[in-house]
Design brief:
Blueprint: H1 17-35, E1 48-53, H2 59-70, E2 74-78, H3 91-101, E3 104-108, H4 112-121, E4 126-128, H5 136-149, E5 157-161, H6 166-175, E6 181-185, H7 194-202, E7 207-211, H8 214-217, E8 223-226, H9 238-244, H10 252-258, E9 263-266, H11 278-282, H12 288-306
The chain binds phosphoric acid mono(formamide)ester and norvaline.
Amino acid sequence: KGTANQKDFLHINDFDKATILNILDRAREVKELLKSGERTYLPFKGKTMAMIFAKPSMRTRVSFETGFYLLGGHAIYLGPNDIQMGKREETRDVARVLSRYNDIIMARVFAHQDILDLAKYATVPVINGLTDYNHPCQIMADALTMIEHVGQLEGTKVVYVGDGNNIVHSWLLLAAVIPFHFVCACPKGFEPDQETVEKARQAGVSKIDITNDPKEAVRDADVVYADVWASMGQKEEAAHRHQVFQGFQVDEQLMKLAGKKAYFMHCLPAERGVEVTDGVIEAPNSIVFPQAENRMHAQNAIMLHVLGL
Ligand code: CP
Ligand code: NVA
């Protein structure tokens, strides 16, 4: 923890501020290169990456696979039925076998312990592509998007409205490293993990507020951020959550309270008419698509970093 020389990319706060800012700078550099049409920068030439998905994905799968390919590498998609990690084969065996074929393992899993086990037994870098606990690649992409659109991340106010989930935990862990004001407005009983909130507060870097009042929370926000109310693995709770989360929809009125400068962000996929209205997601200040694009650029920089390139 807290070192710049981690083998893996599992939690944002495993890295110091300088390292996180370096990765974000690198993301912008390589993004510019790729957007210019340049295709001769091939740092991943001759390298392969195994991508384990225990859950569905569009952005994570396509952005990792495309990004790794554009920089010269070859990525292998292993879907929920392919290796059935922990079921067909123990995680520690998967980790050691894949390490013998691949230069990187990227994984999206249910239990966070699975990614910790993978990283423990893998001899190559493991990148966290979302667990029930966190989603660090998403929040790195979000940080990059804020730097591009708001102009900076430091000193801004980010207000997340909805479920205190994996996305929130990664925002909190980013706030433990980079100073900004993070507010999570969620229904009672759906607050983020208390230990993670404490970790972010104890880091003494950022202002952290957890509240049950979205209207008050969004005032003066630079970014209002939403995610689904029922995450992958919770879809059977969707109807119940729909009831409990009334008043937490990001709609035009809430955006109005946030003020003119507020951007709208969402990690996607979005359920329009549930956690966010169609109007908010389609409004000019919604930056959800540049945000989605930045998954690829942020992750390219993360992969360069873990490979020491
Ligand atoms: N935001 C995100 O991780 O999207 P996918 O689930 O489509 O990968
Ligand atoms: N909280 C959501 C994020 C999806 C990218 C989930 O875990 O399903």
